[in-house]
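Ligand-bound model needed. phenylalanine.
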Amino acid sequence: MEPVSNPDLALLLATGTGDLSACADEAALRVWNTRYFGEKGEMVAAMKKLPTLPPTERKGYGQEANRVKLQLGEAYGKALEAESEKALLASVNATPLDITLPGRPPRRGNLHPATKMMREIYGIFADMGFQVFRTREVEDDETNFELLNMPPHHPARDMWDTFHTTTPGVLLRTHTSPGQIHVMKQFCPGPIRAVLPGMCYRFEAISTRSEIQFQQVEGLAIGEGVTMADLKGTIGAFARRLFGQERQVRFRSSYFPFTEPSIEVDIDWPKEDPNADRLTKGTGWLEIMGAGMIHPTVLRNGGYDPEKVSGFAFGMGPQRIAMLRHAIDNIRLFWGNDLRFLSRF
Ligand code: PHE
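Prediction:
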């Protein structure tokens, strides 16, 4: 900025600047501001001199006075800012705050216990060469029953209480077995090793062990010379991977329209488990799945020639398995959306 030549204004600038630097705190700065910039302050007084000057000097004086005003004003602004910075620093030092302390992290969610169980089951079967094959939850009567060797009015249909839609012949699948037909149609005449997971629905009275909605994992292997021994070996290996090497596996004969022969699979439950009696109804054995050799009619319905190939199938309820694993005594907890339950897994 150009120098100020008028001696009065130069003095004003010098004393103003000097006084400002002598201010020790914000209060002093405010007092300074009133003194120089207030209504009755030095700056106003300097401006008032203007009309008393000879006309030739007025312009130069006015310009210089404005420069002084600007300079002092700026200096005041800076001093005020420096002062508030200093005050902040002083308060931070007076009440120390450790800003390096980590904050509280937001709680991370976890996978649903049913999802974890499913992934564990996929993992075990993947190791044995089974791929995951997804099929639809809304099915037609034909695929859910007829092609699985259950014509209309077949008494075995009573094993599956069904939700029907308002469209005749369209229903919510009662098991994952109709997926057998879909996977066979897709891969025939080639060999198959697949697990078919998914939600199933049954029109049932809800209880601690039965829900109207639950997951199943179907398994299927088809090829030349597949035998019951392969089924036993596969299920035995699966059960021991899931429940431990020391577990015994028991095969009981059973009945399903789509397998022949049909079996149910139990595992022995540790006697030292306090829940053993309740879980096994006192028998020491616990059912984990239905299975069997795929019925020739079903193979044919999937496009295969039962004279050339054979296969086995099984179906299990992962919710029941998770209940055993974690001593969960109520199947309703799975879809109840209660975080107290879900966050424990
Ligand atoms: N679909 C049967 C059920 O829901 C289980 C099963 C699957 C049995 C495959 C044999 C073979 O009970």
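The chain has a mean pLDDT of 92.
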